[in-house]
Structures are given as C-alpha cells and as structure tokens.
Amino acid sequence: MAEATSAFRAPKGTNDLLPPDSWRWREVMELAMGKVFPAAGYAPIETPIFEHTEVFERGVGAGSEVVGKQMYTFPDRAGRSLTLRPEGTAPVMRALLEHRLERGPLPVKLAYASPMFRQERPQKGRYRQFWQLGIEAIGSDHPATDAEVIEIGFRYLVRTGVTPTLLLNSIGHLERSCRGGYLETLAVYLRDRVDDLAPEDRGRIDTNPLRTFDSKEQATRLVMDEAPVISDHLCDACAKHFDEVRSLLTDLGIEFTLDPRLVRGLDYYTRTAFEYVAGGLGSQNAVGGGGRYDGLSESLGGPPLPGIGFALGVDRIVLASGDREGGAVGSPVAVYVVALGTEAGRAALRLATELRRRDIGVDLDLMGRAMRGQMRDAVRSGATWAAIIGQQELESKEVTLKHLAGGEQRRVAVDRVAEIVLEGES
Ligand code: HAM
Fold first, then answer.
1. Cα separations in angstroms, 31 against 114, 132, 316
2. Cα dist. 9→4, 22, 73, 129, 141 in Å?
3. Distance between CA atoms of residues 149 and 164, nearest Å
4. Region class of 395: left (phi > 0), else alpha (psi between -120 and 50), else beta
5. pLDDT for position 323
6. Residues 248-288: pLDDT tens digits?
7. CA 65–ligand 1 middle distance (angstroms)
8. Which of 23, 141, 223, 242 lies in disulfide reach of 170, CB 3.0 to 4.6 Å?
C-alpha cells in the first residue's frame, strides 16, 4: 500500500469512531434503541441536527453555560440564526408542539440516539461532538413517571456493564413559595460572603445564584458547603411529589443518594433532578443526567405540559463499561468463504450472495490472498464458520465447512450451507 498521510485532521474535540470500537458503540446504541427503551413504550424520534437558535435560548435558557458559552451558532445564507443542537430535550419539545403530539395519548414517550454539539474544552469523556441516548415522557406530572424514567436509565446502564450511582434531588418549582423564595435566601447568603467567592462566580449572585453550586472553584465550593439548600425550602406540593418519587424508587429496589447540592446545568429543570455517575471517568464522571421540566412547553409557547427525561453520554458509557474481549464484538459475520483459485473465487461470491440473501452474515476474500491469509482473515472476521471451496469441492458442488472455534470440519453440499448455519444459530 502506498504511504500517504493526509494533512487533514478531524476538528478538535471530535472523534472518528473506528472498528473494532465502533462495534461496541453500535451494541450500546442498539441495546437502548432496539430493546430497553421501546420495551417500556418509548418510540424513536429524530429531530434536525440544527434548530433556530431561539429554541435553545428560550427552551434551555440564555443564562445557562451551554447556551451562553458553548453553542455552535451561525447565520445561514438568508441571515437566520441557526444552532447545532447542544442537547435533545428542547428540540423534542419543539417537535412535539409543532406536530401536536400532545393531542394523542399521554404521556408522549419518545427516545433518541443523536449527536450533540458543545464547544467545551475537550478532555477525556468531554468532546465537542458527542452522542446522547435519551428518553422523554411528556404530559404527566405523576411521580410514577419520574420513577419509571429513572429506573429505565439505571437498568440500561447496568446492562451495558456500567455500575452507576444515582444522585437525586428536587429543585422545586419556580413560584415564590418554593424555589423563587429559596433563590432570594441563597442570594442573601452569597451577598454576605461575596468576598469569599472566587471572583468569576461573584456575578452569578444576581443572574443565576443556583449555578454557584456547579462552580469548580475551590473558594466557591467552600462557601457552597455551608449554603442553604433547596430541599429544605420546597413548597408542600413539591415536597410531597419528591417523597413519592423516593418511595417509588425504593419500591423498585433502586438505590439512590440524596444530593441536596445537585442543581443541573440547564435552566428548564423543575422538581426532580438526577444524575448517574460512574467510576473510572476522572472528572467527567456523569454518564447521564436528567430531570423534570414542567415549564419547558410554555417557554416554547405551548400549553402546560409537564415532562421528565434523561440523556446518557454514549462516549462515556463506552469508556466506563470497559474493554470487552475479542476485537470483533458484535460483528454480524457468521461465515467466511475461503476460495482457492479463480473458478472457486466465482463460486465463493455466488455462495456469499446466496447466504446474504437469506440474511446470513458473510464475508470473503477480495484481495486474491493465499489460503493461509484467507484463513487468518476468517478468524479475524469473528465468523463462526469457514466455508472452504477448492478444486474438489467445485467439482462435487460441495464446500468444506469448518467450525473455527472447535476445529472440526466436514464436506457438505453447497445448497445445505445455509440450513446448517441457521441451525447452529438457533
Ligand atoms: P446534560 O447533563 O447536559 O443533560 O447531558 C447529559 C449527558 O450527556 C451527560 O451526563 C454526559 O454523559 C453527556 N455529555 C454532556 N456533555 C458532553 C460532552 N461535551 N462530551 C461527552 N459527553 C457529554 C442534557 O443534555 C439534558 N437534555 C438531559 C435531559 C433529558 N433532561 C431531561 N431530559
């Protein structure tokens, strides 16, 4: 092969997902979108990769870090401001409202597996293009919805091999009797200690005091350790809702850790807020997070429609669930056809095509390799069987079918190969 290295590199913070790792990635995606999510009634949704910028400004909140500092926003040729989506919840709500899905049975249950874009400082587990798996249940404020959603994310993560810890909090609703009043209390507390806060956090007292809980600055963190917490200031209705969510989770055998300082980074959250964290990821230890967003529909101009959901970071799940054995995990190749000579090569392509028409995964040599090279490729492909065609097999319309793991082999008629392979799979 010629030595040619392109001068181009993928943009900073983006990843090329290459085999064999891409198999693991596919497996993780399919477990969610093909099994766990639909089995609980969540139907797939795809929204555009870009939206009108206002969807995020109004939906997620212009004061959040994600909207204020991390969005890829650009004018199109007609001068409209578009944004590569940094998250999936606001677009899903926009689509639901646009297509009036709330007129159907409630809650509307939707699931997505999509790339998201945030211009963050890249590091392990934090990228500028990353994939999220998410579900949203929209139209119910019943605590059973919270418990259902949280349990699905937890069980899915366990099945991928991640051992999640569930952090749980309630951040109340926006009225003065609840979070509204609490924010005033928090602002008073912070104003009293403004000199102890890290300088970059001081401006938040008046704009978004809750965000000071997310600060990475040591000085601010010390102040926040003593700060009043929202869970002590919930109104009766929010406190009751949260009690019920905890009790239902306990009922389902889901362990959680109450974290009164968990506030989440997006402005649409109300009431239940949660995160799944996992070891082995360094500082980016959140494999997923979510919560209620009971006011999101209205901030996009829709009717009152309470909702709850989560998003899980696929890149982080793959990192946290560790390496699996065998390069070709998930490879769907069941048979590798090995051919000796030109005539056998034609028969090999014919056999491969016949098997593929019956949905059997087949690969074969396309480089004219010698027998040894083809057998090595057969093993590498992850196939269960090698179907070998030489001169003798050609003449008798047979193949030598070799079980690659066990080593045993036998001659079988070409037109019986499919039957034998399918029998072995069932
Ligand atoms: P989020 O906490 O911003 O929530 O993101 C959810 C998950 O996406 C994170 O826990 C993390 O695993 C992954 N993630 C976020 N940013 C990055 C990044 N730069 N690189 C790699 N992975 C990342 C949301 O996005 C909400 N929409 C979740 C939600 C759905 N809430 C209600 N429904």
1. 15, 14, 16
2. 14, 19, 22, 15, 47
3. 15
4. alpha
5. 56
6. 999 999 999 999 999 999 999 999 999 999 988 888 899 99
7. 13
8. 242
The DSSP code for 310 is E
Residue 3: predicted pLDDT: 67
40 Cα–ligand 1 center, Å: 21
Tokens read off for 41: 């009634």
Contacts of 291 (CB under 8 A, 6+ apart): 171, 264, 269, 270, 271, 272, 273, 274, 308, 310
Residue appearing with tokens 């490879």: 331
Burial of 171 (0-12, 13-18, 19+ CB in 10 A): buried
Q: Which amino acid residue places its CA nearest to atom 1 of ligand 1?
A: 289
Does an H or E element contain 97, and which?
A: helix 89-98
Share of the chain above pLDDT 90, in %: 89
Q: Which domains does the chain have, with CATH numbers?
A: 21-176+235-321 (3.30.930.10), 335-425 (3.40.50.800)
How far apart, in whole angstroms, are the C-alpha atoms of residue 373 and residue 365?
9
Mutate to test the pocket of ligand 1, among 17, 55, 84, 87 (most ligand atoms within 8 A of CB): 87
Which DSSP symbol is given to 46?
Answer: -
Please give the radius of gyration of the chain, using alpha carbons only, rounded to the nearest integer: 27
Cα 420 from Cα 19, distance rounded (Å): 29
- pLDDT (tens digit per residue) in 76-110: 999 999 999 999 999 999 999 999 999 999 999 99
Q: How many CB atoms lie within 10 A of CB 425?
A: 10
Q: How far is the centre of ligand 1, averaged over its atoms, from the C-alpha of 232 (Å)?
A: 27
Pocket of ligand 1 (CB under 6 A): 87-89, 118, 120, 125-127, 130, 132, 134, 136, 265-266, 286-291, 293, 309-311, 313, 315-316
Higher per-residue confidence, 258 vs 331: 258
Ligand 1 mean position to 266 CA, how many Å?
Answer: 10
- How far CA 283 is from CA of 86, 123, 232, 274, 312, in Å, comes to 20, 9, 28, 17, 16
d(CA 207, CA 121): 24
DSSP code per residue over 235-273: -HHHHHHHHHHHHHHHHTT---EE-TT---SSTT-EEEE
